[in-house]
Design brief:
The protein is of the alpha+beta class and about 375 residues long. It contains 12 helices and 20 strands. It has 2 domains: about 140 residues, no CATH class; about 180 residues, Rossmann fold (3-Layer(aba) Sandwich).
Length: about 375
């Protein structure tokens, strides 16, 4: 058994993750607002002081970047090496992470980002490597499915009595509309794009940062609150990119952008609104079935798990059913089944709107649904 005496614990909906002390700074940057005291056996352990390659006994190999056996997987990418042990078993999942040393090419990219994009320190780059959709969050989704819950690609807001999920693909306007609703009402924030719903239909505060685009900030007060949390260099870059007509984005913890008293920890999901941008001249609520909306929600959520689904295709093509990893089709149907069980039986709406509709206009519509 690994020594886990020095750890920090975080609640991810119905899950608890323990992070070894060397990684707590990285995880606090993302999910410090979900830190909890927890002395029992968690659902996941994360370690940074063990060689990931030594933790896995691989049976199958897909080039140099992917190895796996019946329940474990090892992944290598440009940022580091990651072993996920017991992912497809009932035992506690263990994640081993080892970052590579950044080379000259990384330094050139760093200089480019200083000039043309958001500057990222070495710590920020490590944080990004872990917290991107391509790695950590699909592991969380597998763990949620074990408990018959799921992630949903949605901005969720609510109070103690009810929550509303605004869903859709990237660029539909979920975040801008959701922030407008939270700002202009007594409702509080639960999630930006990684909503968490348990087997009973309860939503939880998301551990992920909010991704904010410049065109989603509807007033100077909100933009100032965002900029006040930037470094001088980052603030200057944002203002430069905005001034050039670009649409810069940043990720920021919700308790920093909105303050802790604007966060809702848990709320029963009572309403789901799927937004899609179309050529319609006017915004309208489309009459459709619960099954169609659930299928659309599943498609939008699967899109965010694209890298994991590609990995499942690779595993299927090599092992041909000889592991506990699901096929992509089975994974899709598993999520669809969970959505049927956890999403409300009514109050699911499909909203068509054009590309000119603003977050303020969408928020007024949603208030009246």
């Amino acid at each position: 058994m690994n020594d886990i005496s020095m750890t920090e614990s975080y609640a991810i909906g119905p899950l608890v993750i323990n992070v070894q002390d060397k990684g707590t700074e990285l995880f606090n940057r993302e999910m410090g607002h979900c830190s909890v005291d927890y002395n029992k056996n968690p659902d996941m352990h994360v370690f940074f002081d063990k060689d990931p390659v030594e933790q896995i006994s691989s049976t199958y190999f897909a080039g140099e970047k992917l190895e796996f056996n019946k329940s474990d997987i090892l992944i290598k990418d440009s940022k580091g090496t990651y072993s996920i042990i017991n992912l497809m078993s009932d035992s506690t999942t263990e994640i081993y992470i080892n970052f590579k040393h950044f080379d000259l090419g990384d330094n050139i990219k760093r200089l480019y980002n200083i000039i043309f994009g958001s500057y990222k320190s070495p710590l920020e780059r490590k944080h990004q490597a872990i917290m991107k959709y391509g790695f950590f969050w699909w592991i969380v989704q597998v763990e949620l499915l074990k408990k018959k819950g799921s992630f949903i690609h949605a901005f969720i807001f609510g109070n103690d009595k009810e929550a509303t999920a605004i869903t859709g693909t990237g660029g539909a306007g979920k975040t801008g509309t959701g922030l407008q609703l939270v700002k202009s009402s007594s409702y509080k924030y639960l999630s930006d794009d990684f909503g968490i719903v348990d087997r009973n239909g309860s939503c939880y505060i998301s551990p992920r940062k909010i991704t904010v685009y410049a065109n989603e900030l509807s007033d100077k007060y909100t933009e100032k609150g965002l900029l006040d949390n930037f470094s001088k260099l980052n603030r200057l870059n944002w203002q430069l990119q905005s001034g050039l007509g670009n649409n810069p984005k940043r990720r920021i913890r919700p308790d920093t952008l909105l303050s802790s008293n604007r966060l809702q920890r848990c709320s029963p999901l009572k309403k789901v609104i799927y937004i899609r941008r179309t050529a319609t001249p006017e915004t309208e609520i489309i009459n459709t079935t619960r099954e169609k909306i659930i299928s659309m929600i599943n498609d939008a959520s699967q899109r965010e798990l694209n890298r994991f689904i590609k990995i499942l295709y690779t595993i299927k093509s090599i092992s041909h059913g000889e592991t506990n990893f699901p096929t992509p089709t089975k994974f899709y149907k598993q999520m669809e089944k969970v959505y049927h069980n956890i999403l409300p039986k009514s109050n699911l709406y499909l909203v068509d709107t054009n590309t000119e509709t603003t977050p303020e206009e969408l928020s007024r519509l949603i208030k009246n649904i």
